[in-house]
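In keeping with the milestone schedule agreed at the kick-off meeting, the structural modelling team has produced records for the first pair of proteins. Each record is given below as a sequence line and a structure-token line. The laboratory manager (R.T.) confirmed that both were archived under the project's standard naming scheme.
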Amino acid sequence: MRLVGPSGEQVGIVPLAKALELAQEYDLDLVEVAANARPPVCKLMDYGKFKYESAMKAREARKNQAHTVIKEMKLRPKIDPHDYDTKKGHVVRFLKQGDKVKITIMFRGREQSRPELGFRLLQRLASDVEELGFIESNPKQDGRNMIMVLGPHKKKTEAMAEAREAQAARKAERQGVSSDETAEAPAEEASAEAPAEAENPEA
């Protein structure tokens, strides 16, 4: 087998007995790390510590993993302007978070005979949020509904990273406000004393 030392150094090709002897000498475990290699590669390590670190890395990877989420927003063809602005605000928030948004226009009664109303509304919404998202799936009729999917320009991972940075910046800003206030007090006192010194002609 090809043996790797505890610090990653190459020990070389050694028989199993020699590798086990070295493991006992270092008080470490002999762990096979590349079974398909020829010869197979083994490493001297603390297996318990290795398992713990591997589990921590896997947990961190899962935490940072971006799950594609599709949010849904439902609108009526003759939506009130205020309601439209509210719904658009939700779409903007979803896209900023890196999520896809499925927009559904719901037709009722005679509205079904005027699909162009829904189409125009979807086009308007896509135009209003074009800086944040793009049309991933063009408007299409689905029974009584018309559906369009908007995709975010930012990837979910980027949006998550930006959100974390913004949160850290806000926290730092809050902590900085109190220290700035204490620092400004002596400065104000000094500026108040300065004119008094200037008024003294003997100085």
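The second protein of the pair:
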Amino acid sequence: MIYNQWYAVLDAREVKKGRLTGTTRFSEKLVFWRNSRNDICCIADKCCHRGASLSCGKVIDGQAVCPFHGFEYDSTGKVTHIPADGKVSVPGEQYRVPSYIAKEAYGFIWVWYGDKNTSRPEISFFTELKKGYSYGQIVETWGVHYTRAIENQLDVVHLPFVHRTTIGKGNKKLVNGPVVRWEGTLMTFYVSNVQDTGQRPLKPDELSDYERLFSLQLQLPNTWQNRISPHLRIMAAFVPVDEENTRIYLRFYQNFVRIPVLRTLVNITGNTMDRIILHQDRRVVITQLPKKSDLHMDEHLVQGDLPIIEFRKKRNELQKK
């Protein structure tokens, strides 16, 4: 994990008013809910009293209430009331569980994975998707570390093999570039896949007017978008569940249909194709070993793997901070 980052962890609709939502993220069991101001709260899903799962309880007056003995928790993980000790009792500081800072933005729940006392930047999201687009969404879990799931979307070499019947049609096996550019933690990479007629692939510095080429973006730590056209984008959040599992939220964004019923139909249709493509990827990616990628591995990468190499370098750099 990269420390001191905002991670997209849930679809905002998964945390409903008046209900507790339990899930595993970052290899930890967490519980989410909305308080009386509709702010997102997130604490460890384990009561400090007898270890019961808080997510099996309920929300009362904006606080999480344990189903076992009624201990009440606020958003900081502090127990505010112990029924067995009476209404006037004040629980000691030892009655608390770990908590996370969480926010809702752009249709996701985000968790600050890092030092609570450090200054926190704004949540980074793709500028053009912040307004004006509607989307449909599919969600599924893969048995891989989130780094493998991300790298699959940075892999421009696999298209004519894994996606031969869909987005990889045309037998364009030779990869010119790619060109990779960073703006802080935002990577944009440009690529030209062409048919192999005996020529050598162009190196990144040999690609002229590369900004006109097909491009994709990775926003660290865990979101990605395919910039298909000004009116159509595919976006994904690769959410770390634990060391061997990733929850993927894949969204089909479009702004060319605005009539409500037609818009919904278009988004559903887009999701159908996205699911086919995603499952073509999954069939192969879940076989990769080890399940987690790292900067130095027993692999022999090629020129077309430059976005993957750059991702690993940047991730390693940020992990050291």
